[in-house]
Design goal:
InterPro entries: DUF3298, PdaC/RsiV-like_sf. The protein is of the alpha+beta class and 300 residues long. It has five helices and 17 strands. The strands form five sheets. The chain has a six-stranded antiparallel beta sheet with strand order 10-15-16-17-13-12, with no helix packed on it. Strands 3-4-5-6 form a four-stranded antiparallel beta sheet, with helices on one face. A three-stranded antiparallel beta sheet has the order 7-8-9. The longest helix has 28 residues. The chain is globular.
């Protein structure tokens, strides 16, 4: 009798383990299908976890509804402008889901396109942003260096790439990305790091590169090819942007004078980084893409 009971318990235990494994496997991948709301495409999913499915579907449909509403408002105003979205499942494995919505804006001036990315944890239904993948300063610097390296190579081969803008876009919140098997793909919209005619510019970065250990403490500033980091601080005097002859007084006691002919109006008190290239020095201000040539005119 004891052998029968023991055998029954083993069967039950095996069944429970198999069931648990099946539930876990089901949560790592879902079925996807394309739907339409007033002409706008969006993805809907189906799977075992009803709450997760409901939460993700609500977010994806709401985006299509918002585009449809904007489309109707443009039509009401009499403007010759319309939106059209195309939804595409880019990744659906290992507990992660990536949806890329391509938005086509048609107007009298022609057509422009942009991408909106939706990444989800299929176990929780949580929407994932780039900050959920790139969590530390070292990871951020690794990402910037990897993307910059890829695009600099493309530029050297003759591709029309704007390498000066890479850091600016990657440090903005909620930048577009999607998953692939070994890591993430950073997607730049037309016009961000290349001319609009170049279309989308993608850069793949694997997890090994993102998580690699850096020698010594993390660099206090992102690497810019050809430039050497000098110092990082904040502007303390009134700052209205860039102009020839401007004086920039930093919190670290240094005073720099702009000697480059660059004008940019942006009143703020930004964080700034000083770089050196050859015998010349350049100032990079937060939220402004362009570097300006400066010279050190004083220290406390």
């Amino acid at each position: 009798m004891s052998k029968v009971v023991s055998g029954w318990l083993i069967v039950c235990l095996f069944s429970l383990i198999s069931f648990a494994s099946g539930v876990d496997a089901a949560s790592t991948k879902v079925k996807t299908s394309v739907h339409y709301f007033l002409g706008q495409q969006y993805v809907q999913i189906s799977g075992e976890n009803k709450k997760v499915v409901s939460d993700i579907n609500r977010i994806l449909k709401a985006d299509a509804q918002l585009l449809a509403w904007a489309n109707m408002e443009y039509k009401k105003s009499g403007e010759h402008t319309s939106f059209r979205s195309k939804a595409n499942t880019k990744y659906n494995k290992n507990g992660k889901l990536s949806i890329v919505n391509t938005i086509y804006l048609n107007s009298e001036g022609g057509q422009t396109i942009s991408a909106s990315t939706f990444n989800f944890d299929l176990k929780t239904g949580e929407r994932l942003e780039l900050d959920d993948v790139i969590k530390t300063e070292s990871q951020k610097l690794n990402l910037i260096e990897a993307v910059t390296s890829q695009l600099v190579k493309r530029e050297s081969k003759g591709d029309p790439i704007f390498t000066d803008h890479i850091e600016f876009y990657l440090t903005q919140s909620n930048h577009s990305f999607y998953y692939y098997d070994q890591g993430i793909v950073i997607r730049f919209n037309p016009g961000e790091v290349g001319p609009r005619s170049e279309g989308f510019v993608d850069a793949k970065v694997d997890y090994t590169t993102i998580n690699k250990k850096r020698n010594g403490p993390p660099s206090p500033a992102p690497t810019i090819p050809g430039y050497t980091y000098v110092t990082k601080s904040h502007i303390e005097n009134e700052f209205t942007g860039f102009d020839y002859g401007n004086i920039y007084e930093l919190a670290n006691g240094q005073t720099w004078k702009q000697v480059g002919y660059v004008f940019y109006y942006n009143p703020s008190w930004p964080e700034v980084i000083i770089y050196q290239k050859g015998s010349k020095y350049y100032l990079k201000a937060e939220y402004i893409d362009e570097l300006v040539e400066v010279e050190l005119v004083g220290t406390d």
